[in-house]
Specification:
The chain is mostly helical and 439 residues long. It has helices at residues 2-20, 23-41, 71-100, 103-108, 113-117, 123-157, 167-189, 192-253, 266-271, 299-349, 354-365, 369-382, 396-408, 412-436, and strands at residues 42-44, 49-51, 54-55, 386-389, 392-395. Helix 2 packs antiparallel against helix 3, helix 2 (23-41) runs parallel beside helix 6 (123-157) and helix 6 (123-157) runs antiparallel to helix 7 (167-189).
């Protein structure tokens, strides 16, 4: 056991020295430090952003100030959005893939592998050691940048975030999901250029699938919110219809021409003993304060009000029919979007989740209210628009919030477990080919 560990460690050190001798390793390392230094030059005060000693004169970024965002949260968001999501995820990963592309092809090339296999070391251990060497390259680069980010956030933002160092295993896993494809292609073709190109195509396909799944999810949520808004409009319309129908039934219960309380008609006067006659046939004196009655006074106004209500009722019924039709169309579209999203989500499940893997660092760093507050300010600054679905206006801020909740609800086991299963399958196939290959 000790001999096996000693041999593996010797091969690992030898492979790393070979990799470390290349200029790309140091170039990437220097660029990582420059990126961290550039982000450290940015600052935040009560007026907005600053660069070194100068105030940034951009009004659209005025909402980013110390009254809205704590300096520690600002620097965490800055390094997460630019340092990790752009530099480490894209630029540094591409440089790392180019630097490590020749590890497997050079190892299995004619004249090199025969000398290595002549030693009393198992083939499987040889291949896995070479594979781990490339992952060590990525881990060291990430560790240097993460340490620089940790110092900047602590010194400039006053927040010592040890959770940043979760980036080292996460970025290494992210890199390993791609390098396993490169190792398999390099094993089959013995060409570094071909392995880089094929890995780039696979990475692009994974990224395109991720964007498509996000677009379908966003569209599905938009239509879900639209259905909810349409249902609320239908309920409000039904309540108003019931109210007007109740008012009309109350008016209909009172016969047209029936006087209100306190009113009298000419027939009432006749019932008292005849028109203009008193007792004994004498002339009846007219009451001093009594005014002539108007039997149809106010009925024109009543009829007009009733007609307006009937017109309003007809319009509401027409509006409800329109809303019902729009809701049916929206539900049909939602059903189709749900099917398509489920299809793409199923395909995505069996592939590595590169974007979600990096997103786990965001969950670790921003679990409190500071990130929610920053997102709300960002939404108020530029994402508070609306879209229209079948005549119904939908708030994009509400859609964005619900989509963020669904993305953050995806479990770590699903993200890392399925991705590592893909890696194990690809790497296992590469190991099988190496072990059984006749060199």
């Amino acid at each position: 056991m000790r001999l096996a560990l000693t041999q593996s460690w010797a091969m690992l050190v030898d492979s790393y020295r070979e990799l470390n001798a290349r200029k790309m390793f140091w170039i990437t390392l220097v660029i990582s430090l420059l990126v961290a230094g550039a982000l450290a030059c940015l600052g935040i005060n009560d007026k907005g952003l600053t660069f070194l000693w100068y105030q940034v004169p951009i009004q659209d970024l005025a909402f980013v100030n110390t009254s809205q965002v704590e300096p520690g949260a600002f620097y965490k968001f800055l390094f997460l959005s630019f340092g990790f999501s752009i530099w480490l995820t894209w630029a540094a990963t591409i440089l790392a893939l180019v630097s490590t592309a020749s590890i497997i092809p050079d190892f299995v090339s004619s004249g090199s592998v025969e000398l290595t296999l002549s030693k009393p070391i198992g083939r499987l251990r040889l291949f896995v050691t070479k594979y781990v060497t490339a992952l060590l390259y990525s881990a060291l680069q990430t560790a240097v940048f993460t340490t620089a980010a940790f110092m900047v956030i602590g010194l400039r933002g006053g927040s010592w975030e040890f959770g940043l160092f979760w980036a080292v295993p996460l970025v290494t896993l992210f890199f390993s999901f791609l390098f396993c494809v490169m190792a398999l292609v390099g094993m089959l073709t013995r060409s570094a250029v071909t392995s880089v190109l094929v890995t780039g195509v696979v990475w692009f396909m994974i990224f395109a699938l991720h964007l498509t799944e996000l677009a379908l999810l966003s569209s599905k949520i938009v239509h879900q919110v639209a259905v909810e808004e349409q249902a609320s409009q239908i309920v409000r319309t039904d309540n108003e219809i019931l109210k007007i129908e109740g008012e009309l039934s109350g008016v209909a219960a009172r016969p047209v021409g029936t006087p209100a309380a306190g009113e009298t008609t000419a027939d009432d006067d006749k019932a008292d003993g005849g028109e203009g006659m008193g007792e004994g046939g004498g002339e009846r004196p007219a009451p001093a304060a009594k005014k002539p009655t108007q039997p149809w006074a106010g009925m024109s106004e009543l009829a007009t009000t009733e007609q307006q209500r009937r017109d309003r009722l007809a319009n509401l019924r027409s509006e409800r029919e329109r809303l019902t039709g729009q809701q049916a169309e929206t539900r049909e579209t939602l059903t189709n979007l749900t099917k398509y999203h489920a299809l793409f989500f199923g395909v995505k499940t069996i592939l590595p989740k590169t974007a979600e893997t990096m997103g786990l660092l965001e969950r670790r760093l921003f679990s409190g209210q500071e990130f929610e507050r920053l997102r709300e300010n960002q939404a108020e600054a530029g994402r508070s628009g609306r879209t229209t679905i079948n005549g119904t206006r939908v708030s994009m801020a509400k859609v964005s919030k619900r989509q963020e909740e669904q993305l953050r609800s995806r479990s770590v086991g699903w993200i890392l477990g399925t991705s590592m299963a893909f890696q194990a399958a690809v790497l296992g196939l590469a190991c099988l080919l190496f072990v059984r290959k006749d060199f």
